[in-house]
Amino acid sequence: LALYFHSGEREEKCIIEDVPSDTLVIGNYKVQRWDIHKQDFLESAPGLGMFVTVTSPTADVLLSKLYGPQGTFSFTSYLSGEHVICLQSNSTRFVALAGSKLRIHLDIRVGEHFLDESVVQAKDKVNEVNLRLEHLIEQIHHVSKEQNYEREREEKFRKMSEETNSNILWWAVVQTLILISIGIWQIKSLRDFFIAKKLV
User: Fold this and answer.
1) Cα 54 vs. chain centroid, distance in angstroms?
2) What is the DSSP letter of 135?
3) Range 120-140 average pLDDT
4) pTM of the shown model
5) Where would you find the membrane-spanning parts of this chain (predicted)?
6) Which residues contact 146 (CB under 8 A, 6 or more apart)?
7) What pLDDT shows up at residue 8?
8) Strands 12-19, 50-55: parallel, antiparallel or unpaired by DSSP?
9) For residue 32, which of 96, 97, 95, 105 has the smallest C-alpha distance?
């Protein structure tokens, strides 16, 4: 997931990432500040830090740390579900003056362990093949985890659909019984009315 969004200084912005359990998530970000004179975003925002907070689906805080204007954060999920990743600038200016516009570039990678190409090139061919094989095995494990997580979600959704269909069926039965009861009551009331008026 690679994106960018605009934010005010000290304004908190959050994204939700659906992550399987026991999965490494790596996030890279870069902050740019709006320059009123150049009418453009500067390449960097020196002196500006980002406070990164990550909470699990059970609202446990997995990460809460202050970084610089550009950085990398990572966390490992211990259970599957929607994890909330929030970023907020730590402007040192007063709240009344901290109105500058920021552009935050964010790249989130789920379940990836990056190969360090310089390390790979420094090793001999056998070690390079070994390293690449380990990387491939890690990716296979990640794909397997993702499939299991999607299977769990599909099963949960199917159960919910079946329960909803069952509830709809019972509601239709109840409605039918109510309509039949009202019909019988109306027929009986009309019959009694006609008998009382000696029309039958």
Assistant:
1) 11
2) H
3) 73
4) 0.62
5) 168-187
6) 20, 111
7) 82
8) unpaired
9) 105
